């Protein structure tokens, strides 16, 4: 049983008393082995059992089949007279939260499916793998993803993004070391950007486009940072300078090109047998030959 628990990532402190394989999937009935439980309110341990109730939780699929875990969860009396809670249920944390119908590992898998494939496509992929969920569930997992702690970075890139192209724009700030977004700002006004820069004095380099708003905001909020052009605008600036220089010196370039290009000798006239020409054409040909000899 120990190897089965390790393989299926089952929680500790539970023993499997029954296994059922049906069209609904694989169902494992689990009973708790602990004789006491800790009250979540006063943290005192209790050994007085009030009742036992079943809790059905979907876990990670097993061999392409849905895996259900039925826990016989005990409810306990809290014997601490100073505690406001008289009865409490045994906890399954961190395996599953209170009132949840799926394990934490399954929720993480659903979140990844939602992020990669979206709602409907993720649902089809989950069904093929033996995971039962709806498209709304996958999207809800994505929406409820805990936000990572926002932090600054020594090297940041700033650019605009479009809510509605040509009408409304926001600002995207990216960590250039990790290539991950730091923040999405709803607008691109100078005051909001400068306020954000002031929160992170560790910023050393700001890579931006040629926008005057971004340049002013970086000067006001991150005076210690050095502003540089991003890769695309750096190449664009080089191309523009080279193009202007070429137009300015175009007459000289054409003159040098004409001097360096090899001069072509005139093509010799094709020799046509005189017998095949008509009389006027034969006379013209004879006249040209005489002129060449006398020249």
Structure description:
- There is one protein chain.
- The chain is an alpha/beta fold and 295 residues long.
- The protein has helices at residues 2-8, 104-117, 120-128, 135-143, 190-198, 212-221, 231-248, 250-260, 279-294; strands at residues 14-22, 25-32, 37-38, 45-46, 49-62, 65-77, 87-89, 155-164, 168-175, 180-185, 205-208, 226-229.
- The protein has 2 domains: 2-143, no CATH class; 155-232, 2-Layer Sandwich (Nucleotidyltransferase, domain 5), CATH 3.30.420.
- Strands 1, 2, 5, 6 and 7 form a 5-stranded mixed sheet that branches.
- A hairpin with a 2-residue loop joins β5 (49-62) and β6.
- α2 packs across α3 and α5 packs parallel to α6.
- The model has no long low-confidence stretch (mean pLDDT 85).
- Residues 258-295 are annotated as: Disordered.
- Residues 285-295 have a biased composition (Basic residues).
- This is Transposase family protein.
- InterPro entries: Transpos_ISL3 (IPR047951), Transposase_DDE (IPR002560), Transposase_Znf (IPR029261).
Total beta strands: 12
Outline: elongated
Radius of gyration: 40 Å
Major sheet attributes: 5 strands, mixed
Report how far the terminal alpha carbons are from each other: 114 Å
Structural class assignment? alpha/beta
What is the mean pLDDT?
85
* Low-confidence spans: none
The percentage of residues in β strands lies in 25-35%
Number of helical elements: 9
The percent of residues in helical segments reads 25-40%
Q: Could you state the order of secondary-structure elements as H and E?
A: HEEEEEEEHHHEEEHEHEHHH
Query: Can you tell me the number of structural domains?
Result: 2
Domain Transposase IS204/IS1001/IS1096/IS1165 DDE: 156-290
Domain Transposase IS204/IS1001/IS1096/IS1165 zinc-finger: 36-80
Biased composition (Basic residues): 285-295
Pfam families: DDE_Tnp_ISL3, Zn_ribbon_ISL3
